[in-house]
Amino acid sequence: MLDQEMREPLFDYLDENFGKIRILEEKTIRGSRADVLGVLDGYFVGFEIKSDQDTYERLKTQVKDYDRFCDFCYIVVGASHRKHVAEHVPEHWGILVVTPEGVEMDRGADDNPSARFEDQITLMWKRELHRLLELNDCPKYPNKSSRFITEKLLLKVDHDLLKRQMTELIFERDYTVFDDQPTIAEKKVRRKKAINIKKAHSAKGKAADRARAHTTHYIGAGSRRKKNIKSKGSSI
């Protein structure tokens, strides 16, 4: 099965078996991109998908990155990987197999001993960090960086309480608005759009000037000034 063919049955399985869950797709975690990050009440679950056409070439690095961000981790594979996939992931990782009939759990996931709360909190948007300050009666720090705010929250708030608050905010997250900290790639796209708009407006203005000159015999300021000087000269 292909990656995209595996996702819909996987999501159906998560809805049926994991209760209240919000699914984040293609989320950057350190040097990897998590295929699926499941947000539940008070913890994070990672799902790395390996379709029948995928190899294990990058899995070693991906395992390290998932282990830093997720409280529980699963590898989700097509049937062709079923026999040997356990050899490629740690024992605390769960194994889900997607077949044409549905999703089957070959092994459940255990608590991940390598999860780092310092990494998990970096999943929060800056506006959400400010909300966490508010929820915990902390100073607002309006001009401070996300890193500064994160350090204060980690220092002042019980981590179990903070994680529950974090996951609740992600449940409420509205992806129809832009995060107020665009990525470098997003900044480049926005700059390019701004330049193109400026060029379009400039071209539109020049076209309007040409049309005006053609229909009304408009004379630009420089030409008019030269004409006035010539007229004055001829009257002396």
- Strand arrangement, major sheet: 1-2-3-4-5-6
* Cα separation of the termini: 92 Å
Total count of helical runs of at least 4 residues: 8
Gyration radius (Cα, Å) is: 29 Å
How many extended strands? 6
* SSE string: HEEEHEEEHHHHHH
Largest sheet: 6 strands, mixed
Based on Cα principal axes, name the global outline.
globular
In round numbers, the mean pLDDT is 84
Helical content (DSSP H or I, runs of 4+): 40-55%
What structural class should be given to the helix and strand makeup?
alpha/beta
Strand content bin = 15-25%
Oligomeric assembly? single chain
Low-confidence stretches: 212-236
Description:
- There is one protein chain.
- The chain is 48% helix and 19% strand.
- The protein is built from eight helices and six strands.
- A six-stranded mixed beta sheet has the order 1-2-3-4-5-6, sandwiched between helices.
How would you sum up this structure in a few lines?
The chain is α/β, with parallel strands linked by helices. 48% of the residues lie in helices and 19% in strands.
List the helices and strands and how they pair.
Layout: H1 3-17, E1 22-29, E2 32-40, E3 43-50, H2 59-69, E4 72-78, E5 94-99, E6 102-107, H3 117-120, H4 126-135, H5 146-156, H6 159-172, H7 184-216, H8 221-235
Parallel strand pairs: 3-4, 4-5
Antiparallel strand pairs: 1-2, 2-3, 5-6
Keyphrases for this structure?
single chain, 236 residues, alpha/beta, 6-stranded mixed sheet, 8 helices, globular, disordered C terminus
